[in-house]
Amino acid sequence: MFPTRKITAGALVATVAALPATFALAQDAESDMQTQTQPQTETQQSDQAMPQNGAGEMGETAEAPDFDDSQIEAFASAVIEVTEIRDQYAAELQGVDDEAQQQELIEQANTEMRGAIESTEGLTMDDYMAINRAASMDEELNQKIAQRLEEMQTEDAG
């Protein structure tokens, strides 16, 4: 049995930031990035550099999307599941030297993590990734998620 860890606000930043790169989830992100980073014309590049809807003018910044409590609840639940799966497979990977076996374990971990996210009621993989990205850029959202994680862990411990 693996020890239960308390996820603190500081650990959440590291955990959430690392999740997309965890195991082969990075492969999904990489394929998305390849699609998004196809060669662009100079005009397309400058259009993307310009803020949309006036954001950036006179110190304004683009706002992160708002997530309701049920989305944050679902995300926090998925983070706990994904973290447990990641930790389990990380421990298993430490004892494996063969690259083929490592890759097989990584693929198994990816499948389990994706399944955990997709089986979380009220959460899709796209939602998970969007909340993950937003939390890495929005301290208030990050704190809200961290608070919910702490509450969930306290409930589980009690």
UniProtKB/TrEMBL annotation:
<feature type="compositionally biased region" description="Low complexity">
    <location>
        <begin position="34"/>
        <end position="48"/>
    </location>
</feature>
<feature type="domain" description="DUF4168">
    <location>
        <begin position="69"/>
        <end position="145"/>
    </location>
</feature>
<feature type="signal peptide">
    <location>
        <begin position="1"/>
        <end position="26"/>
    </location>
</feature>
<keyword id="KW-0732">Signal</keyword>
<protein>
    <recommendedName>
        <fullName>DUF4168 domain-containing protein</fullName>
    </recommendedName>
</protein>
<dbReference type="InterPro" id="IPR025433">
    <property type="entry name" value="DUF4168"/>
</dbReference>
<dbReference type="Pfam" id="PF13767">
    <property type="entry name" value="DUF4168"/>
</dbReference>
<feature type="region of interest" description="Disordered">
    <location>
        <begin position="29"/>
        <end position="69"/>
    </location>
</feature>
